[in-house]
Amino acid sequence: MSEPLLRRDRDDRGVVTLTLNRPQAFNALSEAMLTELGEAFARLADDATVRAVVLGASGKAFCAGHDLKEMRAEPSLAYYQGLFAQCTAVMMAIQRLPVPVIARVQGLATAAGCQLVAMCDLAVASHDARFAVSGINVGLFCATPGVALSRNVPRKAAFEMLVTGEFISADEAKALGLVNRVAAAEALDDEVEAVVASIVAKPAVAVAMGKALFYRQIEAGIEAAYADAGSTMACNMMDPSALEGVLAFIEKRPPN
Q: What does the sequence similarity comment in the record state about its family (predicted)?
């Protein structure tokens, strides 16, 4: 029996781990892989018991981007438009999930693989990780990865990566804001778990409301952002976990 393209695991806390599983192809995003990811995210969006998602990969690389052999096999505008629309839908599904998605990155993350890291809410990388939007090296500007990249790192840094195709290290990625934490390869899982444990210890309602608001307001003008944020905080305050948390703080005791 062949190995699945996407492995799925879940622990008793509701933490789901999705693992890209095409190590022989550096986990390139084939159409089949994109379909698997899209279906997985759709199921997770409907599961209220999920608390966090870790997106990782098997083998030496996180993700080498689109499957170029597959792309070259069908050179038509309609095919390419459909492929990039499919990829965009997967990327947006990450942002629309009500729980945080944490990228666990080792090795290379290039082109749409770098985009995948940028679209995750949080990212933890091993010291050996390297990042690039390198399509320009074969004559293809990484336009869709650039959408995610330019919303994570400063404008000039993003543009330099896009027009040079050069790699940046894990430490450079952290300094630019593409990843949150960097760890030694042998400590990568422990660092990811530290992030996950902190998230699942928080009230699920507050995390879900906060994530949705975060992405809405960041694309809005400041007045609209404040209006949205104020309404969200008021609704959040009415949640029993928030009311109890505030009361416990006032009474100097752990929340029930």
A: Belongs to the enoyl-CoA hydratase/isomerase family.
Residue 14: pLDDT band (50, 70, 90) is: very high
Taking the CA atoms of residue 229, residue 233, residue 195 and residue 104 in that order, the dihedral angle to the nearest 10 degrees is: -40
Residues 76 and 153 in one domain: yes
pTM listed for this prediction: 0.94
- Does residue 1 fall inside a structural domain? no
Q: Are residues 217 and 100 in the same domain?
A: no
Tell which residue, 37, 17, 211, 15, has the closest CA to residue 113: 37
Domain count, the chain: 2
Domain range for 219: 204-251
